[in-house]
DNA sequence: TATTGTTATACTCTATAACTATA
DNA sequence: TATAGTTATAGAGTATAACAATA
């Protein structure tokens, strides 16, 4: 297990963000394990479910992963029976990726588990504090895009 | 450059923490480049400056890096003339790592640059919002240790 | 010619195992 | 026997380059 954070580092934004992410990541990984997927695969399923239809390259762009990485990601999800590739009729170079029925069901359950992890993770802040934290992070991460659409 | 975040992901804590870290990390890397060190090397210098004396293994433990990784890290800092190894007299297996005068000076300037990046990064939140965010992250990351000393 | 998906390859980062010296 | 530092090696993860199919 990790040691108590050194005081010099404990006030640095980078350190705090990194370790918050590490701890949340461990909790999410544990919560998702029973569903046989990891956090990134869940993100792929969520994206494909929300924005249809997406080709592999379009999904890769939105998730900020390389297209070669996306091939392996979709391979994995397809092996698990959660998504299917089909050729686009509009552009036969593109693979439209869609969730199977199994994939939709898995997404529903796994995402509920993830939301519960988020809730427990933020619990020490109280309801209001948790909402403030999420809002602040949204300003920092998404705020830029408001002005550059 | 990255695309605007997909709406399904923009409310997820993991996504927000990850991307906040990515953006801050890019800004910090750019700000530190003139000083010839990266964020982790700065963390090593800060730690060695704050807690003296530390052996390589002790420093590795506090920074949560493998001892073999620490060897390479110290090698790099030593090549740059920022730290020096010396055998501990109490236990000749241990390398005490200490900052050189150049290292102290570099730390001072580079850490000022890092603090300025943090300040600018948090500026959209206002002073109070920035303080609230840091406090909330400290509760999430450090809070646990209060009860387990 | 350019783009999409794919494969093979190379690269980066970190961890594991084995060795030396010290305890 | 165990620990600290080191080195060499292996592994995971990702990116780069080249290729086939399609536009």
UniProtKB/TrEMBL annotation, chains A, B:
Annotated protein name in UniProt: MarR family transcriptional regulator
Keyword annotations: DNA-binding, Transcription, Transcription regulation
Sample GO molecular function, one term: DNA binding
SUPFAM superfamilies: Winged helix' DNA-binding domain
Key word Transcription regulation present: yes
Location of the HTH marR-type domain: 10-142
Source species, domain of life: Bacteria
InterPro entries found in the cross-reference section: HTH_MarR-typ, WH-like_DNA-bd_sf, WH_DNA-bd_sf
Pfam families: MarR
